[in-house]
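Lecture 7 notes: from sequence to structure.
We start with the chain below.
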Amino acid sequence: MSYTTKYNFVSSCKVLREEIQGCCQERTSMYDVSCDDFKRQYEPYIDYNNKYTCQQVMYILNSISSQAPSLYNDNRCKYLYYWIYQDLLQKNNNYDIALKWYRIFLNSYFEVDDDNHICNNYVHESKGIILKRSAKLIELYDTINNNDKPFNCDCAKICSELYTEYVKECDNNYDPDYCSELQNFKYIYEANIKSIVHIIFLNNSLLQLDHE
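Predicted C-alpha cells for the same chain:
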C-alpha cells in the first residue's frame, strides 16, 4: 500500500539530479556574467569542486521557464533546492543556508528573465517549509537507494536514524502529505529489512550445513 501525496516525486529524483549534473561544464553560458557577480559570495560555504555551479542552477531555471507550468516542473523547482543543499553546499549542508542561496539564485535569475516562472512560488518565506520537507524526504530515499548499491545494515541504520528524526514533525506542525510520504518510505524500508533478514538467515543456514 502506498499513499498519493504532493511529495510522491521524492522517490524518483535520480533523473533530476543527472539533468543538473550534466549541464554547463564549460564557460559558454549566457549567465556567466551574472554568476561571476555573486560567485564569491557563496564560495566560502562550499567544497568548491565545480566552478560552474551557478550556471547549472540558471540553466535548470531557464529550462523550466521554457516549458508550460506543470507538476513536473514544480517538482524540479523543489528538487533544485535539495541539490543546492546536498551537492552545492556538500560538507557544509544546512537547510537554512541552502534556502538563502536558493532564493538568491532565483532572484538573480528573475532579474534577467522576469516572467511568471513557476519557481517564483518558492521565493516567499511561507514556502520554505515545503522545500525543507521535500529535501528531508529526498534525503531518505537517496539514502535507502544507496547509490544503486545493495541495501545493507549500515544503510538501514542511517535510514532508521533519519526517519526517527524527521517523523517527529508529525507530532507538531502536522502536514498530512509529508507524514503519508514518510509512511510510504517506511513500507519500502520494512520490505528492505525483511530482505536483509532473509539473506542473513540463508547465509547462516548455509554455514550450518557446511559444518554438519
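Points to note: The CA atoms of residues 110 and 159 lie 37 Å apart. Residues 201-212 have pLDDT under 50 and may be disordered.
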